[in-house]
């Protein structure tokens, strides 16, 4: 029974840490860029797109395909940073709690 009590206590602590992590992710913004910073996108920690910044030199009609490719690359860069940050925060939130192998949080 002692182990069950400890496990419940750990689960409550993890739930509190998860709520704190969710709030932190919502408040955090991550910037991804491409083309040596000519295209930048900002995402929240939850992956919501907040802003797109485009260097005016890319606004020429003949640069359209380049701009499209750079937007995709900048978004991928920002998304990778968000996922890395989220994995780090999840590791902090579940510290000390043994999870079954293969279990990923959040569900």
Describe this structure in words.
The chain is α+β, with helices and mostly antiparallel strands and 107 residues long. It has two helices and three strands, in the order αβββα. A three-stranded antiparallel beta sheet has the order 1-2-3. α1 (2-27) runs antiparallel to α2. The chain is elongated and about 70 Å long.
Keywords:
alpha+beta
Write the H/E string, N to C: HEEEH
Total helices: the number is 2
Total strands: 3
Helix content: 40-55%
Q: What is the averaged pLDDT score?
A: 84
Helix/sheet category: alpha+beta
The first-to-last residue Cα distance is 28 Å
Question: Brief overview, please?
Answer:
With 107 residues, this protein is α+β, with helices and mostly antiparallel strands. The chain is 52% helix and 17% strand. It has helices at residues 2-27, 64-93, and strands spanning 29-34, 39-44, 49-54.
Break the fold down into its secondary structure elements and pairings:
Blueprint (H helix, E strand, L loop, with lengths): L1 H26 L1 E6 L4 E6 L4 E6 L9 H30 L14
Antiparallel strand pairs: 1-2, 2-3
Helix pairs in contact: 1-2
